[in-house]
Design goal:
The strands form 3 sheets. An 8-stranded parallel beta barrel has the order 3-4-5-6-7-8-11-12, surrounded by 8 helices. Strands 1-2 form a two-stranded antiparallel sheet. A two-stranded antiparallel sheet has the order 9-10. Helix 8 packs across helix 10. Helices cover about 40% and strands about 15% of the residues. The chain is globular. The chain is α/β, with parallel strands linked by helices. The chain has one domain: Aldolase class I (TIM Barrel). The protein contains 12 helices and 12 strands.
Length: about 325
């Protein structure tokens, strides 16, 4: 029997297939269907920094209502129980997921700046989360700030969140650092137990009718896997942390590739949105068939065998493939 079990963030998973943050992980019904299909773990939708700030402002607004009115008019003070703002919904989802699922439940917080709000990560832990994924998203648009300052902000966020937790912490970052390998080491040094590569930055579009900026969500495809594939191959064996691949995991071939270069798990959202929870069962069946044909008995045996550390030509993940791709394009047409 092929052994698909893997360890991610110190958690034992029945499979390397993980449902990452998305609409399907935000409802108990679809979470249960993912578990029935064989998912190894689930990552719930992110609690955004902006939500916490908005919740705080809403509470202040509500409490200020009627502040200039007659002091004995107590009915001016509204019942805050009627105002479902802030992290409460996320906390309830964690509690419900833990009560109804047997697979590990990972809660997510999405940050852009250091701040005391990171204590909410501890509340998600208290609600039962088996681990926390810290999703760092920011656009470095201030020309007065140096790259070193921007990177230090990220490290400060990791340090602050780590200080609130007892459970494992994964950090989901983007690829846009001048020295990705160095930054990965710094994030792990700040307390990350795992790295999720990469945060997929959605780019806004311009509406030519209204001249307004509009969000555009375009689901990934397998071509988007190439960037995390390269960096997982480079980082495998370099950092003492779990590695997760996200963005572009759609097929069993994609799953096999990320495991071969050193990932502990393959995370997916777009593939599940397109194909439904049952896609997990199909991917697992195909992955087992592929491993059996090549006489791989377990994920542990497979993992990292094609990483930079284990490759016959380590430079293949660096510059040599860039030159080869350009010089051979004409012959591929």
């Amino acid at each position: 029997m092929t052994d698909l079990t893997t360890t991610y963030l110190g958690l034992q998973l029945r499979s390397p297939l993980v449902a990452s943050c998305g609409p399907l992980t935000g409802e108990i019904d679809s979470l249960q269907r993912l578990e029935e299909a064989g998912i190894g773990a689930v990552c719930l939708p992110s609690l955004y920094e902006e939500e916490i700030i908005a919740a705080s402002l809403e509470v202040d607004r509500v409490l200020d209502a009627g502040a200039e009115s007659f002091p004995e008019a107590l009915n001016y003070f509204p019942d805050l129980a009627d105002y479902d703002v802030g992290p409460d919904g996320h906390l309830r989802l964690v509690e419900d997921a833990k009560a109804k699922l047997s697979v590990p439940v990972i809660a997510s917080v999405n940050a852009s700046s250091p701040g005391g709000w990171t204590g909410y990560a501890g509340q998600l832990e208290d609600a039962g989360a088996d681990a926390i994924e810290l999703n760092i998203y920011r656009v470095a648009a201030d020309p007065a700030r140096t790259g070193a300052e921007v990177e230090q902000d990220c490290i400060d966020i990791v340090t602050e969140v780590r200080a609130t937790l007892r459970v494992p912490l994964a950090v989901k970052i983007g690829p846009f650092f001048s020295s990705m390998a160095h930054m990965a080491h710094r994030v792990v040094g700040a307390g990350a137990d795992g790295l999720v590569l990469f945060n997929r930055f959605y780019q806004p579009d311009l509406n030519l009718e209204t001249l307004g900026v509009e969000p555009r969500v375009e689901l990934s495809d397998s071509r988007d896997l190439r960037l995390p594939l390269r960096w997982i191959a480079i980082l495998h064996g370099q950092v003492r942390a779990s590695l997760a691949a996200t963005s572009g995991v759609h097929t069993s071939a994609d799953v096999a590739k990320v495991l071969l270069v050193g990932a502990d798990v393959a995370m997916m959202t777009a593939a599940l949105l397109r194909n439904g929870p049952g896609h997990v069962t199909a991917l697992e069946r195909e992955l087992v068939a592929w491993m059996t044909e090549r006489e791989y008995e377990s994920v542990d045996q497979l993992r990292g065998s094609a990483s930079q550390r284990g490759a016959e030509n380590p430079s293949a993940f660096e510059r040599s493939q860039y030159m080869k791709a350009l010089t051979t394009y004409a012959t591929q047409r």
